[in-house]
Structure formats: C-alpha cells, structure tokens
Design brief:
The chain is mostly beta strands and 132 residues long. It is built from 2 helices and 8 strands; from the N terminus they run ββββαββββα. It has a 4-stranded antiparallel β-sheet.
C-alpha cells in the first residue's frame, strides 16, 4: 500500500490517521469523450483515510473522498489531515482533486461527514481535468 500524511489521533496516542491507497482499488476508467485520451479519470491518486492501530498492528479503511462525491473509488485523493484541537472526535480532511474540505466525526468505525466546504478557486484547475 502507498501511505502518506500520517497524523496522530487527538485523544489516543496509539492510533494514527493516514492517507493510503489500498492495493486492490482498480484505476477508474470512463468511456472516452476524447479520442486521444486513455479513458482514465484523472484527479487524485486514490488515497483514502485509514486508521492505524499501533497496539495490535492493524489498519482499517475509515472514509474516502471519492465515495463522498459519489465517484468510483480511487478518483479523488486526500491531500491533508488535521485533528480538531477543540473537538477530539473531529478530524479535518482536504482533497484538492475534489476541491473540498470535510469535517469528519471519527467516533465510529466509518466516519460521518459533519460539514463540508467547497474550495471554488481550485475547481478551475481540476474541473476540466476530471472529464466529467
């Protein structure tokens, strides 16, 4: 797996958050709108949010920006992870390929989106590249 952006959990020091790409995620394709394109959706590298438990040496998938945007898995990628200093159960996750920042409630196995902000300035750079 490809792991990046490691951040310690705000309340549990034996748990870390990481952006990683699972090895079993296929590269998403669309039927070509452009004859010269290879048909691959471009945007991110497919990194999702994983929880790494150092006590039992395990990792579990928590959340994906691609699924949050109703896209095939692997289209969008996580570019930033930050714990909320005030609320220990909230983590902030950003994706430049999706042009958004999410606040995630991480108390449960699968994270819930608390709020989401669009980054309109980035949409000019990534919108046409996605081809959708």
């Amino acid at each position: 797996a490809n792991i990046s952006l490691i951040e310690y959990h705000a309340s549990e020091m034996s748990v870390m958050w990481a952006a990683a790409r699972a090895t079993n995620v296929p590269k998403p394709y669309i039927k070509g709108k452009d004859k010269n394109a290879d048909g691959a959706l471009r945007g991110g590298y497919g990194h999702s949010l994983f929880k790494i438990n150092l006590r039992n040496d395990s990792a579990s998938h928590v959340w994906s920006p691609s699924k949050a945007e109703y896209m095939p898995e692997g289209v969008h990628s996580i570019n930033g992870i930050m714990n909320d200093l005030r609320y220990k159960h909230v983590a902030w996750v950003s994706s430049s390929s999706a042009c958004k920042v999410w606040a995630l409630d991480i108390r449960h196995h699968a994270a819930n989106v608390v709020m989401c902000f669009s980054l309109a300035q980035l949409s000019d750079d990534f919108g046409p590249e996605l081809g959708v």
